[in-house]
Amino acid sequence: MAHVVPVPAQVTVPVKDTTDLFPVRRVYCIGRNYAAHAVEMGHDPDKEAPFFFQKNPDSLDTSGRFPYPPKTADVHHEIELAVALRSGGRDIPVETALNHVFGYAVALDMTRRDLQGEAKKAGRPWEIGKSFEHSAPITPLVPSAACGHPDQGRISLRVNGDLRQDGDLSQMIWKVPEMIAYLSAYFELAAGDVILTGTPSGVGPVHRGDRLQGEIEGLGALIVSVV
């Protein structure tokens, strides 16, 4: 039996300070998971259940370069904590959810905001605004054995040295164990799944030539050039 087209390469994310690679299966993203960001986007965080959308595995990019995408004039930065799963299952209890985590990284959920806005108005899915090539720059993963399970600590983003986003992981409305448990009620999670956990307030546009520096306390920095 032969494949009728070339087999796509497995998407991987490196593990910090090793030669090991984490194979990516799926990428789930939670929307409006910081109250201040929900407000700046025109929503009431107290009245909203969690909701998720997906990016493609090959949206993850460790190159440090973000090519400005086509068909848009308004691309926004969103700094986020990424969670990588070592195992999964269905109906995972909150109390044991962290047992399924391999490690964490700093990531960006780059968004074609104009296209996302058009999709929202039309009641359509967000993928055209969210799930395009290179839309999720990410650092190498830090294993939980090295960093623990961060549930507090500064998360920030600077653009050309100017502070744009500044929050704390403790401000997440839905915490990491809750996100894992909630997702597992709707999907069968598995090793290789990555969850982007939402962004604090201060999202805004980027332009060609910009230098982005995102940081999460204990996980290091993500430096990305917009090209």
From TrEMBL:
InterPro entries: Fumarylacetoacetase-like_C, Fumarylacetoacetase_C_sf. This is Fumarylacetoacetase. Residues 27-226 form the Fumarylacetoacetase-like C-terminal domain. Keywords: Metal-binding. The keyword Flavoprotein does not apply. The keyword Metal-binding applies. It comes from the Bacteria. It holds the Pfam family FAA_hydrolase. One of its GO terms (molecular function) is metal ion binding. SUPFAM superfamilies: FAH (SSF56529).
